[in-house]
Amino acid sequence: MFGELVPLGGGDPIPLLKKRLIIGRRESCDIVLRFANVSGQHCEMVADNGYWFVMDKGSRNGTKVNGVRVMSMRKRLDPGDTLYVAKHKYEVRYSPAEQLGASGEPPADEDDIRDIMNQSLLERAGLQRRKT
Description:
Blueprint: E1 4-7, E2 14-15, E3 20-24, E4 31-32, E5 43-48, E6 51-56, E7 63-65, E8 68-69, E9 75-77, E10 82-85, E11 88-93, H1 96-100, H2 110-117, H3 121-124
Parallel strand pairs: 3-4
Antiparallel strand pairs: 1-2, 1-11, 3-5, 5-6, 6-9, 7-8, 7-10, 10-11
């Protein structure tokens, strides 16, 4: 087992049994959520370099991490994060080192990279351009 999703508000934990999982309403999904507001194939979770990442699959009601909508290609899920699949909330539980073999710093996700690329070198250093 590579971790689990624990429903917030009650319910049995959902084991993460593979390193690539499709979450959705369809019976063919790896994790089936039988709720009307969950898309057929809602999102995908992938373990990469010892950490879980989530990608929305074009769902109607969105995927969020800690209340922030997943807008990029993928968003890292750290242990203890809250994953929202439509309006359904799950705590993400796993040990990067013990369950997924992580070592060193966690890999950046696309949101972090996009934020960095949209800043000037001065902004990244916490400096401001002098006005003349």
